[in-house]
Automatic annotation (TrEMBL):
UniProtKB keywords: Isomerase, RNA-binding
PANTHER family xref list: MITOCHONDRIAL RNA PSEUDOURIDINE SYNTHASE (PTHR21600), RNA PSEUDOURIDYLATE SYNTHASE DOMAIN-CONTAINING PROTEIN 1 (PTHR21600:SF87)
Protein name: 23S rRNA pseudouridine1911/1915/1917 synthase
Organism for this UniProt entry: Desulfomicrobium macestii
PROSITE patterns noted in UniProt: PSI_RLU (PS01129), S4 (PS50889)
Length: 297
């Protein structure tokens, strides 16, 4: 699979590895591995990871077959006559426009040709994406969302110790790569509420609830609070292993779906228990990390 782009005339020169991370949504380490393996050409020539890419230059990336997920990794989680919930793996775009593969192109193969996607997840975020079978259902979803009747639950692994977090700051999305968190309070539908599930080493597994999200809302709010997500190349360090943000559960009138990530630190019963008691202020159980990487109480 190949991916090519011309570096924007509106951007200043930048290192090749960082230019790739910005364009592909990968972590810097993954981009460096692609460069060192000879999969990246700048104006038809190989370059070092620290070489500057300048406005107008053409970058060609030839990625191995296993470098990005495909429709084979997408799953139909739940469906009725009006709605369907799909699992999108991290590293797959939701809609067409940036890369050959996207969740939208997978719909016909899942028996959902002509269905409309109702929400998007960031390229690196995994989890549930909702689709509607007709315009009436899509309109109903929008009405419920505006009324606060759609609840979206995420699991996130954040840096540091976090007991709980309520972020009400308005996010300014002016189409830049990095959204800005303001000091102005947003409408309640746009708030981010997080509660600790457990401690994972020096970090915290969080259950996060939003109602009507803005672009990068959870990532930006947590980073603004000093707890960037593990694996976030935009608001954090971009550790290897992918972004630890997963849309776990969706609840709305007449329809719900859930799909847990395969992270070793996630305990199904504990997450379900916290969701049912989400608004309380109980302390999370303490977890220790075993050499195998499994988190157990």
């Amino acid at each position: 699979m190949t991916n090519s782009f011309f570096y924007s005339e509106d951007l200043p020169p930048v290192r090749l590895d960082k230019a790739l991370a910005r364009q592909l949504g990968f972590g810097v380490r993954r981009c460096r591995a692609l460069i060192e393996a000879g999969h990246v050409l700048v104006d038809d020539r190989p370059c070092a990871k620290g070489a500057l890419v300048r406005p107008g230059q053409h970058v060609l990336v030839s990625m191995p077959e296993d470098a990005a997920p495909t429709c084979h990794d997408v799953r139909l989680v739940a469906r009725n006559e009006s709605f369907a919930a799909l699992f999108k793996p991290g590293g797959l775009h939701t809609v067409a426009g940036r890369g050959a593969s996207c969740l939208e192109s997978c719909l016909p193969g899942l028996g959902l040709e002509g269905w409309e996607l109702l929400n998007r997840l960031d390229h690196l975020t995994s989890g549930l994406v909702l689709a509607a079978g007709d315009q009436q259902s899509a309109a109903a979803y929008k009405t419920w969302q505006d009324a606060g009747q759609v609840r979206k639950w995420y699991l996130a692994l954040a840096r540091g110790v976090v007991q709980g977090l309520d972020s009400r700051e308005r996010i300014l999305d002016d189409k830049r790569r990095v959204v800005r968190v303001t000091t102005e309070e947003d409408e309640p539908l746009r708030w981010t509420r997080a509660r600790a599930v457990c401690q994972v080493g020096d970090d915290t597994l969080l259950l996060v609830r939003i109602l009507k999200g803005r672009r990068h809302q959870i990532r930006a709010h947590l980073a603004h609070a000093g707890h960037a997500l593990i694996g976030d190349p935009v608001y954090g360090v971009g550790e290897p292993g992918g972004l630890y943000l997963h849309h776990w559960r969706l609840e709305m009138p007449g329809f719900e779906a859930a799909f847990l990530p395969d992270w070793p630190c996630v305990d199904h019963e504990l997450v379900e228990s916290l969701a049912s008691d989400f608004d309380s202020d109980r302390d999370p159980p303490k977890f220790r990390i075993l050499p195998s990487g499994e988190a157990k109480p």
